[in-house]
Design brief:
The protein is an alpha+beta fold. Helix content is 14%, strand content 27%.
Length: 178
């Protein structure tokens, strides 16, 4: 069953944890979400909206919970976040990895997830609660979760780079970035 809009209206940390084990559906492809990272608003130095910065690139971050914020990294890798919380307050979570039932090395990083699912700029701002192209579905399995520091954000300083805002399903730890 498709996840409704209310699910995304909560804080980024809550949603980033609760989305683990749910399924991301894009067209005829799908994968179980196994790793996420939370970006907790304008005070978060790792967020593209740090200090309430608003640009053409990050304006989707300011949409109400449940919208796609996708951007290009290093000029070649798409990475997809989904917004959380209220309109006008930039919080989101990054989908870092999925299990699509194939070789996990195809989907064990945020750029790989987008490549595998065919996600690109055309999904920018899409509402996952109502879209016919991309959505999340529930899954009622019991999961054991881990929290760790986020990956690749040393530039945000020691406080923000060491906060345990990365969440993953424990059973997948050996397949994911340290």
């Amino acid at each position: 069953m498709r996840i409704n809009k209310c699910f995304y209206s909560r804080k980024a940390v809550e949603v980033a944890k609760d989305v683990l084990g749910k399924y991301l559906i894009v067209g005829n492809k799908a994968g179980k979400i196994i790793e996420t990272e939370a970006y907790v608003g304008p005070q978060d130095r790792a967020s593209h909206a740090f200090g309430m910065k608003l640009t053409q690139r990050n304006k989707a971050e300011y949409l109400a919970g449940g919208h796609v914020y996708i951007y290009l990294v290093y000029g070649m890798y798409w990475q997809m976040n989904i917004t959380t919380g209220k309109k006008g307050y930039p919080e989101c979570f990054l989908i870092r990895a999925i299990d699509a039932g194939e070789d996990i090395k195809l989907t064990n990083g945020p750029g790989k997830v987008c490549r595998y699912l065919g996600l690109d700029k055309s999904f920018y701002g899409e509402d996952v609660a109502n879209s016919k192209r991309i959505w999340l579905e529930t899954n009622k399995s019991k999961l054991s979760l881990l929290s760790t520091a986020r990956v690749g954000i040393d530039y945000a300083g020691p406080y923000w780079s060491k906060r345990k805002l990365r969440f993953l399903i424990k059973d997948y730890k050996k397949y994911l970035a340290a």
